[in-house]
Specification:
67% helix, mainly alpha, 2 strands, two-stranded parallel sheet
């Protein structure tokens, strides 16, 4: 009977499901506070809470062994299954023309479904943990009046039973977490491939358009003076790459960040950063033979500025994805004596080299040969 009630409740929740209104990818448009989820999440999690409360209140181990695994199965097959079908059949973000961006409302609906999974996973965790919270100096049923206890221990006086109940609750949380995480990962990959990736390469192309890393110091000084006379900012030349990249990066990421939950956005950002680092590395290698000493220094500065824009907001752990890029630039701009020391360590295969190289010896040689005129 409980199984029928719960499955029917999940089905009804999706029949009455309501989307959040007023969402847009336009950064100028304001809307309500996140998280942005559909009504089915709150409805289903309310039922889960009620079913668990009533089952635990019986203080019967057989009831727990029957009901909680049933809840886990229905959440996996019906709740997650329904979201998966919607993501696949109703809201899959696919552009009508290859390389174009899918329709805005489809993108938003897809993001909201990913949010459903993330928020539901958080709800299940809180529902389970709330029943395992330890109450300080609560009356114990095992002989110590001052020993901490849990709500489960209060309802199941035999320690073996309370251990079983807590283990069953943990299994509910873990099984749902695994299923939800798998679908979230799939959704994040689709969002990256169909929504973000088509726009990322053009952003980099625009960032480095008309940037010449073979200019002499004299020509560069003239360009800086002309920029200062035109807009009053002599630094505009040095920061041109950073400003252009920030403009494209913000236009790409800010609308997405406003709709996705923080955890989902972090997942997507990690995927974006991994791809960006690969594309950026290819961009660096493409300048082989098209750099002079000054240009190599400018390229290193521009790469560092791009990285700082991509990881700003306290996400400094993502810098590691750009290690290869920064090491290539480091080798290009090394002084001769520093490079000789690196070579000596490499040839001697010394174990005391504390530098963690992500590029191998052949790549280091290639990076060193990129600069045609090393004189600054």
């Amino acid at each position: 009977m409980t199984t029928f009630f719960f499955r029917r409740s999940v089905e009804k929740a999706f029949q009455l499901d309501e989307q959040p209104v007023g969402l847009s990818l336009n950064p100028a448009k304001t809307f309500a506070n996140p998280p942005f989820i559909t009504s089915a999440v709150d409805d289903v999690m309310y039922i889960v809470n009620q079913v668990l409360d009533r089952s635990l209140a019986t203080s019967q181990r057989p009831v727990i062994s029957s009901v909680i695994p049933m809840v886990a199965r229905v959440l996996s097959s019906d709740f997650i299954g329904m979201i998966q079908r919607k993501m696949r059949d109703e809201c899959y973000p696919k552009a009508a023309i290859q390389g174009a961006i899918p329709p805005e409302q489809i993108i938003i609906a897809f993001f909201v479904l990913i949010n459903n999974l993330d928020v539901a996973s958080d709800y299940v965790e809180r529902i389970v943990l709330s029943r395992m919270d330890v109450s300080e100096k609560a009356p114990s049923l095992h002989g110590n009046a001052d020993a901490p206890t849990t709500p489960i221990a209060s309802m199941y006086p035999f320690e073996q039973d309370s251990t079983f109940v807590m283990s069953t609750l943990r299994s509910l949380h873990q099984s749902f977490e695994i299923k939800a995480s798998e679908l979230i990962s799939d959704g994040i990959f689709v969002a990256f491939k169909n929504v973000v990736k088509p726009r990322l390469r053009p952003i980099l192309a625009d960032t480095f358009r008309d940037i010449d890393y073979q200019m002499s110091s004299h020509d560069l000084e003239i360009l800086i003076q002309e920029a200062g006379e035109e807009d009053g900012d002599r630094n505009s030349v040095d920061l041109a790459v950073q400003h252009q990249f920030r403009k494209g990066w913000d236009a790409l990421t800010m609308p997405v960040a406003r709709i996705l939950t923080e955890r989902n956005y972090d997942r997507l950002l990690s995927t974006i950063i991994a791809y960006l680092s690969e594309v950026l590395e290819k961009r660096i290698w493409s300048y082989y033979g098209r750099l002079n000493g000054i240009g190599a220094a400018r390229l290193e500065r521009d790469i560092a500025n791009i990285v700082s824009v991509a990881v700003r907001g306290g996400r400094y752990s993502l810098r590691e994805a750009f290690t290869r890029c920064t090491q290539i630039c480091l080798i290009m701009n090394m002084e001769d004596d520093e490079w000789d020391e690196v070579q000596a360590i490499s040839k001697a295969r010394r174990e005391d080299d504390s530098f963690d190289w992500k590029i191998d010896t052949e790549e280091r040689l290639r990076a060193r040969a990129m600069v045609q005129n090393p004189q600054k």
